[in-house]
Amino acid sequence: MTPHAEPDPQAGAAVKAADRAHVFHSWSAQGLIDPLAVAGAEGSYFWDYDGNRYLDFTSGLVYTNIGYQHPRVVEAIREQAARLTTFAPAFAVDVRSEAARLIAERTPGDLDKIFFTNGGAEAVENAVRMARLHTGRAKVLSAYRSYHGATSTAINLTGDPRRWASDTASAGVVHFWAPFLYRSPFYSSTEAEECGRALQHLEDTIAFEGPQTVAAIVLETIPGTAGIMTPPPGYLAGVREICDRYGIVFVLDEVMAGFGRTGTWFAAEHYGVVPDLMTFAKGVNSGYVPLGGVAISAEIAATFDKRPYPGGLTYSGHPLACAAAVATIRAMEDEKVVEHAAHIGETVLGPGLRELAERHPSVGEVRGLGAFWALDLVRDRETREPLVPYNAAGEAAAPMAAFGAACKKNGLWPFINMNRTHAVPACNITEAEAKEGLAALDAALSVADEYTA
């Protein structure tokens, strides 16, 4: 695949100049960033105006699950725009109903009612509101090493440093430690120990907070940006049992892990659990038009049969977004994208990343499944000291910056967070493309190795 136009550095410079003059970027010190001007994208690749092509191992922000510019989704958006571009959410619209039906068919258990939002943070925001109204309780528990979004409640639920600047300490959120054997907060040596101790810690936290005050526990089924830590066997089932015992609503955040990313439609399928509420976004339509939502159990939906739900959005279930979702889900079904993600994880990405770990001392641990992987980079494998300190910036983050620059030099656009790089390509990435990405990682990890003890 090659760029569809001749390089045009002058046009790229104009795009960059307009961006720097007028666009205010997320999570950034505006005067310190230098965003790449993108000329186009297709499949697993994108390219700039200088003709440089990159294999995207980030899937945008882990959302282009079927790659860029999938023709069936592009055509569905075009057809919907010609037929009915937009309509208010209070009406029944065919494409909105069909998107909800297709999503409900794939969610576990009785999560058959769909409340549409514009993205993942709003989905989490509304899930928490539903849980509080359903239980009449105020507190919500969430894990450290998590990310749930940047709206008011979602950012307070988040368990990484992006929360700090907005944390009011009055949002009714209590954080706890979820299991993570590689960096265990419980001094565990086995997955069974980590699972048991993490569940006991959660139950102790609930006991000291007062079970009758806790509305919900919110967990990413598999934490995404925080490190792709797959939970040990039995953990999510244990959380489900604790929630049932205390009348707490169990919310699973599948914004990143859902819609094929882990080799199943939803990551919860790997663990045999059904939450009371499940949030989604990103992969539901590969991010082509903003869309998210909450899948709601029958019991919680019944709470609002005669009682109005006090929440809504002007663009809830936007027809263009729903048309993109319908086309995406049907394309994933027809092209067996979910099965392919499982296969590529089992046969190429997983084995390939583990082989890299054997040769590169900077790789402390490989973890993941499907098209959802993380490499935990370290200075010392014995001590597991991270390659850069927690929340490092500036010179302290130089080793990861050097690693990232080496990836880009080799035509790979990496996903980097703290001391980790994530391998999160499109779920329909080909075997050849995946191997191309592994080769680029191999070269870049040699740079990371230079910073090891």
Entry summary:
By secondary structure, this protein is an alpha/beta fold. The protein is built from 13 helices and 16 strands. It has helices at residues 9-22, 59-62, 71-83, 94-106, 120-135, 152-157, 191-209, 235-246, 298-303, 319-334, 337-359, 398-409, 431-449, and strands at residues 38-42, 45-48, 53-56, 113-117, 139-143, 173-176, 214-220, 249-253, 277-280, 292-296, 363-369, 372-380, 385-386, 412-413, 415-417, 420-423.
Descriptive labels:
453 residues, alpha/beta, five-stranded antiparallel beta sheet, globular
Structure description:
The chain is about 40% helix and about 15% strand. It has 13 helices and 16 strands. It has helices at about 10-20, 60, 70-85, 95-105, 120-135, 150-155, 190-210, 235-245, 300-305, 320-335, 335-360, 400-410, 430-450; strands at about 40, 45-50, 55, 115, 140-145, 175, 215-220, 250-255, 275-280, 290-295, 365-370, 370-380, 385, 410-415, 415, 420-425. It has a seven-stranded mixed beta sheet, with helices on both faces. α6 links the parallel β5 (about 140-145) and β6 (about 175). It starts with 8 loop residues before the first helix and ends with a helix.
Structural class: alpha/beta
Count of DSSP strands: 16
* Separate helix tally: 13
| Fraction of residues in β-strands | 15-25%
Low confidence ranges: none
SSE layout and pairing:
Elements: H1 9-22, E1 38-42, E2 45-48, E3 53-56, H2 59-62, H3 71-83, H4 94-106, E4 113-117, H5 120-135, E5 139-143, H6 152-157, E6 173-176, H7 191-209, E7 214-220, H8 235-246, E8 249-253, E9 277-280, E10 292-296, H9 298-303, H10 319-334, H11 337-359, E11 363-369, E12 372-380, E13 385-386, H12 398-409, E14 412-413, E15 415-417, E16 420-423, H13 431-449
Parallel strand pairs: 3-14, 5-6, 5-7, 7-8, 8-9
Antiparallel strand pairs: 1-2, 2-3, 4-10, 9-10, 11-12, 12-13, 12-16, 15-16
